[in-house]
Amino acid sequence: MLRMERMLLLGTQFLFVSLLLSFYVHKGYAGITSTFVRSQWPATDIPLDNEAFAVPEGHNAPQQVRITQGDYDGKAVIISWVTPDEPGSSKVQYGTSEDKYEFTAEGTVANYSFYKYKSGYIHHCLVDGLEYDKKYYYKIGSGDSSRKFWFQTPPKINPDLSYKFGIIGDLGQTYNSLSTLEHYLQSGAQTVLFLGDLSYADRYHRNDIGIRWDTWGRFVERIAAYQPWIWSAGNHEIEYMPELGEIVPFKNYLQRYVTPYAACGSSNPLWYAIRRASAHIIVLSSYSPFVKYTPQWRWLREELKRVDREKTPWLIVLMHVPMYNSNEAHFMEGESMRSVYEEWFVHHKVDVIFAGHVHAYERSFRASNIHYNVSSGERYPVPDKAAPIYITVGDGGNQEGLAGRFRDPQPEYSAFRESSYGHSTLEIKNRTHAIYHWNRNDDGKKVPTDSVVLLNQYWSSNKRRRKLEKPTYGTAFY
Ligand SMILES: [Fe+2]
Fold first, then answer.
1. pLDDT digit string (tens) for 162-210?
2. How many angstroms does the Cα of residue 343 sit away from the middle of ligand 1?
3. Which of 51, 108, 269, 351 is the most exposed place for a label (fewest CB within 10 A)?
4. Spacing, Cα 234 to ligand 1 middle (Å)
5. Which range of residues forms the domain containing residue 408?
6. What total number of domains does the chain contain?
7. Active site (annotated) includes residue 236
8. Residue 163 located in a structural domain
């Protein structure tokens, strides 16, 4: 009898523990599908004559002004612009006090054609040897048509620096895109990490393709002339159009958007890396060869070895096509790159991977699927503390509209997903903590909707953390 009671008691205890475990396992790994719906502006491009694309006054005045980082560590910028009527000067005058331009740098100028469209004169000027953490004023163009801007160099690479990045993807040139830019301007972020699909000019035909590349250049100038945009390319940049006799991929994009690829030993502007403040940022090309032995594969393998988390604790990867995506749109398109690179990303403890392409927002838990092979049968992603967080920010607001159909049920790796427009910020606080936000565009205001405190993947090891002071930010670690 006593034995029977003991067995019953054990059985009850087992049931209770099982229920408790299943509750916590489920609770700790359950994602949210937001049901938020807002009345959005139509997904149509802003008309050509709208003030959002205003041409600056004056004969041959420089337009489409933008900057990007010009070297590996942030002591250089590349300033680019277009002169519409004649080549003009490729000179940049610059200095550290307003209206006192004591230095000069000389750039290059070129134009090109795409079908029957003839581009303006595209200037690129490397301004190097800058001091860290300084505001520079610069002037381009000549006489009455000259224009003035400024930018701030980042502080010297240091593991404990705070720095705020903005993240924008799939922007396009609609009123929703404009809303994203306006909200980004309020964010206080210092550099844009751009996730590919810029102008959506390829949705047009013939000469309008080039014209819409020009409008987009003027559209983003309000931000891009003052802080660097770190570019990555998407499918809308490919523009392989044999029907127009245009068979060189990325032609418009590569003529206009330059990157400091040579500074990190890359052989191609479509994949490269930079270091900025306390972050090491790797940009990959979803639409260039990436399998074993290709130039991108070989370069990435070496670049990952160069990452020094003692100097740049935050390791961030940008690509266009997400590896983890639970939207019906573009589902599984990132699978080929995932099968090649995911193991490296887990091994090197990448903090976060940002992608675009899917016109919605989604954040994953830390999960990996690196034990799969064609004969093992272990085919499901599992929770993995060493894995990156995958975040899709393809919601800039382009003319293709939102991707509104998420897969049901929500996969376990998916933490939060919502089909609306917005942008993200990653505010690095120090070597151990960063605050991440996704900000929804909501009828004229930005609404912080999804946020997490990120604990650095390298410095989160107990051994390393014990050496540091007690962290001061947040309580929830992801
Ligand atoms: Fe895309």
1. 999 999 999 999 999 999 999 999 999 999 999 999 999 999 987 799 9
2. 24
3. 51
4. 5
5. 157-196+270-478
6. 1
7. no
8. yes
